[in-house]
Amino acid sequence: MDLNTHPFLTVMAIALVASLLSEIRFGTLRVPVVVWEMMFGILIGPYALGLVRPGGFMQWFGQGPGLAALFFMAGMELDLQKVKGRPLSLAIRGWILSLGLGLAAAAVLHSLPGIQAPMMVGLVLTTTALGTFMPILRDTGNLDSRFGSFVLAAGAAGEFAPVMVVSLVLTRKFGAWQEIALMLAFVVVAVGAALIALGLRPPRVLKLLERTMHSSTQLPVCLSLLLVASFVSLSTAIGFEAVLGAFASGMVVGLASRGQQGKVFRHKMEAICFGFLVPFFFVASGISLDLGSLLLSPKTLLLAPMFLILFLVVRGAPVILYRNDLPGYEQLPFALYSATALPMVVAITDIGVRSGIMPAHMAAAVVGAGLLSVLLFPTIAGVLLERQPPRRPRPR
Predict the structure, then answer these.
(1) Are 138 and 378 in contact (CB under 8 A)?
(2) Bridge partners (DSSP) listed for residue 92
(3) Considering the domain boundaries, does residue 393 fall inside one?
(4) Which pLDDT does position 390 carry in this prediction?
(5) Contact 40/17 with Cβ under 8 angstroms?
(6) What pLDDT, on a 0 to 100 scale, did the predictor assign at position 63?
(7) What number of other Cβ atoms are within 10 A of residue 79's Cβ?
(8) For the chain, what is the HEC assignment?
(9) Helix axes 360-386, 328-338, angle to 10 degrees
């Protein structure tokens, strides 16, 4: 069977197997589903079994709707009510510190032979995969703790800020001042849409949305998907990456669906995105990962552990700002969670490769480091937290 001609069958089969495998614990290690999806993509790709060629519908769908769905859900998960106050303030300051360290790392990398796109790598190092370790925090009971609020805030900063910077860095359509002006205009549109969504709560409208939520019309879902398409189209039309529009639409929909009333709707959107669209992105990313250049070159292969250390340094170093807020035994786990970065790494390096800024072998090394961070950092953090006293509740 030519798997290129059956993309939906291929990806849905991988998504099912990956979901089952993600439920298996190897001692204290539980491999996230996104890692399994990428590994199966690598397995069926041209550098392993060769069952699927890069390109075609599967690649287009993964880099289009799949990537947009990933950033849409990242925006939906950004709950500012949970992290407002000191957690958010420290998270912003911490990400600025990470950006400085990332730029310093880029300067050092620039002086090394064979390192290309150091600025892009420096930006990738500032990312955090909030959506990857949030289920782990929830399962271990740490999500609603004081520790959890600080981790959530740091993760939110590590998702939102890089998206904004990537859209500015990768834009080539207008001049610098025009880009900034367009970015501000886009933010105004997004804020306006959020205010409208929050204020549009007449009883008749709420009853209509609630009634159609359980009918074949699925009006709330259709409205949300239309908003995603509109924001993605707007962001690309003014010269920004589509991921910015997807992330902004996720923030708007997330604000409008907070609370118990939006719980069913949020579950539906999670099912559409994580159950159908997002697997296409990670499977396609695994297929297109240039594993050959990574394994055949010893120098390139050594880059993966180096980038893994840089992830921990760049995103873990801001823990020094938390010395008066987190006890000593929580500081290393905080640094490890902050340095977990696979989904955002895959997304940004994918944009970098497609835009011609980052060579494929560098992207493969950075993604390899991201895979290792997801496999190692949350597991080590969980083991360290299990040996410590019970969590304190989140401050009110």
Answers:
(1) no
(2) none
(3) no
(4) 54
(5) yes
(6) 80
(7) 14
(8) CCHHHCHHHHHHHHHHHHHHHCCCEECCEECCHHHHHHHHHHHHCCCCCCCCCCCHHHHHHHHHHHHHHHHHHHHHCCCHHHHCCHHHHHHHHHHHHHHHHHHHHHHHHHCCCCCCCHHHHHHHCCCCCHHHHHHHHHHCCCCCEHHHHHHHHHHHHHHHHHHHHHHHHHCCCCCHHHHHHHHHHHHHHHHHHHHHHHHCCCHHHHHHHHHHHCCCCCHHHHHHHHHHHHHHHHHHHCCCCHHHHHHHHHHHHHHHCCCHHHHHHHHHHHHHHHHHHHHHHHHHHHHHCCHHHHHHCHHHHHHHHHHHHHHHHHHHHHHHHHCCCCCHHHHHHHHHHHCCCHHHHHHHHHHHHHCCCCCHHHHHHHHHHHHHHHHHHHHHHHHHHHCCCCCCECCC
(9) 150
> Is 381 inside any structural domain?
yes
Q: What is the pLDDT of residue 309?
A: 92
In CATH, what number is assigned to the domain containing residue 226? Answer: 1.20.1530.20
Task: State the residue range of the domain holding 235.
Answer: 7-21+30-386
CB atoms within 10 A of CB 378: 25
b/e code 173-203 from CB counts within 10 Å (16+ = b): eeeeeebeebbeebeebbeebbeebeeeeee
What is the per-residue pLDDT for 109? 77
Q: Is residue 392 part of a domain?
A: no
The CA distance from 86 to 81, in Å, is: 12
Q: How many domains does the chain have?
A: 1
* Structural domain contains residue 105: yes
Which pair of structure tokens corresponds to residue 33? 């589903």
Which residue type occupies 243?
V
| Chunked mean pLDDT (size 10), the chain, 396 residues | 78 92 76 84 85 82 85 77 81 91 84 69 84 68 79 84 73 59 68 62 65 81 88 78 80 78 83 89 83 71 86 92 88 90 79 78 84 83 73 50
What are the phi and psi torsion angles at 365 (to 5°)? -65, -45
For helices 360-386 and 130-139, the axis angle rounded to 10 degrees is 20
Looking at residue 139, its pLDDT comes to 64
Count Cβ neighbours within 10 Å for each residue of 316-337 and write b for 16 or more, e otherwise. Answer: bbbbebbeebbeeebbbbbbbb
